Amino acid sequence: MNRKTLVLPAVVGLLTPVLAACGGSGSGGKSGDAIVVGTTDQFTATKDAPAPLDPAYAYDVGTWNILRQTQQTLMAQPKGEGDPVPDAAESCGFTDSGSERYACKLRDGLKFANGDPVTAEDVKYSIERVLRIKSDSGVSSLLNTIDTVETQGDREVVFHLKTADATFPYKLSTPVAGIVEPKDYEKGKLRDGFSVDGSGPYTFQADVKNNSIVSATFTKNPSYKGSVTVNNSKVVIRSFDSADAMGAAIDKGDIDVMTRTMTPAQIQKLDAGSDSKVDLVDMPGLEIRYLAFNTNAPSVKSKAVRQAMAQLIDRGELVNKVYGTQAEPLYSLVPATITGHSNSFFNKYGNPSAAKAKDLLTKAGITTPVKMTLHYTTDHYGAATKQEFEDLQKQLNNSGLFDVSVQGHPWTEFRPAEQKGRYDVYGMGWFPDFPDADNFLAPFLDKDNFLGSPYSNTTIQRTLIPESRREADRLAASKSLTEIQDQVAEDVPILPLWQGKQYVAARGDITGTAYALNSSSTLQLWELGRGVSG
């Protein structure tokens, strides 16, 4: 096999939740027709989440990767590094010096896939709908700096912001700002099920069984007008129960590409192999993993308990045992490659020390061992998650200061329970909504945050986040960003663990794999093509 490393310039920021999945449509990798992409992620509609693909609700990397192919946004993230570029818009920009008035002009002749015109009023409707519904997924918080939206004719939209927000163009490039047709999406109600309509590069058709997508077909939208070039006519995403089954499928030629989530052992095997028919592409990753705390829960309500865990956990040992070279220790919510990153946790706690952790607990009058359960999801971040949490359990228990058990749950059970505060401590992953340090901080710390966390720091919410957003030069925002990270290291409402790479494996006749995922882990199906094997 061939291995390719994609080296991208340092990026300035990041997002979001898991790559979405679907099963076959009768077109295999050998068909020469649709390009078939494999994944282990799955979509399910449940009582707690009946509308997984509504842009007013969807807030994980999988559902977003469906929406990014199908629902157009005013702005779009480029395939490499750089600022957002106009997509549904012809042009966008701040019209004042204070970054509080943002105006966009739509492309002429823009249409939904059904042929209906896309108007400025549709954009206004779409944004106001998200804010009106304000779903419990927390996705509407991305648009919380919007005060009012006005239209000027059929093609001009003006956003008046409550406060300066230099990151606003990035937010308009995320699926929460997807343009929907009012007749398909009610103003005050989520659209249940798996139907998706828009003006993006592809139309979407899902094959559903037992309230889950078993296959999804993306067909090139001939009406699309935007910033990307579509290099194929059709892509099918197939879902597999395991990474091993997905790997067997690419070996047989039943699929052309595999993405999330390959196991560490599988990546190592592909990397060391000699099969010239499959290429492994690795690229810089902005995915992070962390422990989150319900700071109202009795077992972790004391800051000293959370600080002691931060003092004990050996990130280097964790990464080496579970992920090897595929990840690296992380000492802040903001990845090391992002402008504004600070090693706040290492600066405060240094190397792991049981003696220092014991001192923290003793001074706070905490009786040891502290009993708690660490919760994780069994099917959302890859098969290695179980081993990761078993290693965390071992590290904490070996100190004699903790009595930790671990418990795994399927994502459809895990996410609603976490949102309702049923777990004291739980593991999560984050893929950037957009490339900026703000997106690794505000979604966890601002009001109406993604986790539904009870932790609230008024200095961060009212002063530091607004200060950082006033700076169009993101390097100039570093002072405020560093203060936020230092406060997180002090209070430990969240404990960052590691930052990972991202990988794509593809058979030799598939082109465009180097850009199949961008720096924000956004799936870009339009980049894939079928070339000449060899």
From TrEMBL:
Gene3D superfamilies: Dipeptide-binding Protein, Domain 1, Dipeptide-binding Protein, Domain 3, Periplasmic binding protein-like II. GO terms for molecular function: peptide transmembrane transporter activity. Keywords: Signal, Transport. Coiled coil: none annotated. Belongs to the bacterial solute-binding protein 5 family. It is found in: Cell envelope. Residues 1-20 form the signal peptide. This is Peptide-binding protein. Residues 84-449 form the Solute-binding protein family domain. InterPro entries: Peptide/Ni-bd, SBP_5, SBP_5_dom.
